[in-house]
TrEMBL record:
A molecular function GO annotation: oxidoreductase activity, acting on the CH-OH group of donors, NAD or NADP as acceptor
Presence of keyword Oxidoreductase: yes
Family: Belongs to the short-chain dehydrogenases/reductases (SDR) family.
Ketoreductase domain: residues covered: 42-230
Top-level taxon: Eukaryota
Transmembrane segments: none
InterPro entries reported in the protein's UniProt record: KR_dom (IPR057326), NAD(P)-bd_dom_sf (IPR036291), Sc_DH/Rdtase_CS (IPR020904), SDR_fam (IPR002347)
Organism: Coniophora puteana (strain RWD-64-598) (Brown rot fungus)
Coiled-coil portions: none
PROSITE patterns (UniProt xref): ADH_SHORT
Pfam families: adh_short
Alphabetized UniProt keyword annotations: NADP, Oxidoreductase
Position of the signal peptide: none
Protein name per the record: NAD(P)-binding protein
Length: 319
């Protein structure tokens, strides 16, 4: 059978039928309707909390009255964030625990300190990640370090905390930070892309396993930020936010809105790429497999024009 050379048969009109296809409306960070799990007196643990999305999440959870355990490998920046959070909720409600998530013993120490201090975890934000230059057959050391943090770090945190969370009386949630690069796989940084593809698979598996557990009160959510102005996306001291990027605070508020609505996939737009564009790109990427097109056909010389036609037609149908 010849390969299809036309637009993907995964037609755009189905996009509007998904529960998460909604207009984003910013929440008040202290909104009591954020989520039943997110309320004053409960506990949030955030990895990668010293900067970017993790730091922004810490502030939003603190404003909602949660106790916060901050974990990151960069101790100095983590300490600074801890002091700022303590100014909101008091020193007794903040734990600052330098942690390399790629080392299981440090993750176990993090869990033990949290449970010793507060006895529970309501929100586990499995967020720590790094990026390093990579190539399909070069930069082996960078590949190793990216996978140590982005994949095995996520596994270490998930395997260490989730069993304890399952034995709690109160409901809880695990929010894992993924990436669009782990779904659409754009050329340029295969190590990061592959690591985030693994994170997507791990989090989907976690959600399924939790769902299959009778009476389970722990939910899982995959947070997929858009272009966000953070350290991992090239932010440097004093640099201005690009117009197309969202702030970390905007991304976190979007995440909280969709957690409240019960979404698993939290596909986040930005000022440059609206949600419909992301959805069409994801569907095209899936079509590479379903239709037997060349790998990464979106960037293939013989398929670029067809992809552009698909996007144009799809967006026209959605307008």
């Amino acid at each position: 059978m010849p390969l299809s050379r036309g637009p993907s048969p995964l037609r755009p009109p189905i996009l509007g039928t998904t529960p998460s296809h909604r207009r984003f409306e910013a929440l008040s960070p202290v909104d009591s309707e954020l989520h039943p799990v997110i309320h004053a007196g409960r506990v949030a643990v955030i990895t990668g909390a010293a900067s970017g999305i993790g730091r922004a999440a810490a502030f939003e959870f603190a404003k909602a009255g949660l106790k916060i355990a901050l974990a990151d490998v960069t101790a100095e920046a983590l300490e600074k964030t801890g002091k700022e959070i303590a100014a909101i909720i008091g020193e007794g409600n903040v734990l600052v625990i330098p942690t390399d998530v790629s080392k299981m013993d440090e993750v176990v120490r993090l869990r033990d300190k949290v449970y010793e201090a507060w006895g529970e975890v309501a929100v586990l934000m499995n967020n720590a990640a790094i990026s390093r230059p990579s190539h399909s057959w070069q930069n082996t050391e960078n590949w190793s370090r990216v996978f140590e943090v982005n994949v095995f770090g996520v596994i270490n945190v998930q395997h260490t905390f989730v069993p304890s969370m399952l034995h709690q009386e109160n409901p809880a949630m695990v929010i894992t930070t993924g990436s669009k690069q782990g779904i659409t796989n754009p050329p340029g940084n295969p190590a990061y892309n592959a690591s985030k593809a693994a994170v997507k698979s791990l989090t989907e598996g976690l959600a399924h396993d939790l769902r299959q557990r009778p009476g389970c009160a722990v939910s899982a959510h995959l947070f997929i930020p858009g272009w966000t102005f953070t350290g991992i996306t090239g932010r440097s001291a004093g640099s201005a936010k690009p117009a197309g990027a969202w702030t970390a605070e905007e991304a976190v508020l979007y995440m909280l809105d969709h957690v409240r609505q019960g979404d698993f996939y939290i596909l986040c737009p930005d000022n440059e790429t609206r949600r419909e564009v992301d959805q069409l790109r994801v569907m095209w990427a899936a079509g590479d497999v379903a239709e037997g097109r060349p790998a990464l056909s979106r960037w293939h010389a013989e398929w670029k024009n067809l992809f552009q036609e698909y996007m144009r037609d799809g967006l026209a149908e959605l307008s």
